[in-house]
Amino acid sequence: MAKGYWVAHVDVDDMERYKDYIAANAAPFAEYGAKFLVRGGERVEKEGQARARTVVIEFPSYEQALACYDSEQYQKAKAYRDPVAMGDLVIIQGYDG
Questions:
Q1: Is 50 helix (H, G, I), strand (E, B) or coil?
Q2: Most buried by CB count within 10 Å: which residue of 22, 30, 45, 95?
Q3: Is the dihedral of CA 41, 67, 61, 49 positive or negative?
């Protein structure tokens, strides 16, 4: 079974308020087996444009990645993020070649 990934690029306008989102997403991420592979960090933009923050989260399966996003708990956490950050999020199935 292929793993699932969230790949997000985010601009945070208010880091203090964004911390409420980080605290609130911990429970659904734990429930759905999320593992942070990239959470900000040093980077170099070689091509194109990107937002200030890049996040990659691995889930045990693509289905778990989708279910986490759609869960009531995550949607409540997301409500903290929406007013203080702009982002792009792709949920993608990993290569199981």
A1: coil
A2: 22
A3: negative
CA–chain centroid gap for 45, Å, is 19
Span 12-63, pLDDT tens digits: 999 999 999 999 999 999 999 999 999 988 999 999 998 999 999 999 999 9
- Residue 96: which pLDDT band, with cuts at 50, 70 and 90? confident
How many Cβ atoms from other residues are within 10 Å of residue 25's Cβ?
A: 20
pTM exceeds cut of 0.85: yes
Question: Does the domain spanning 4-44+51-93 belong to CATH 3.40.980.10?
Answer: no
First CA to last CA distance, the chain? 10
The helix (run of H) or strand (run of E) holding residue 30 is: helix 15-31
What's phi and psi for 73, nearest 5 deg? -60, -45
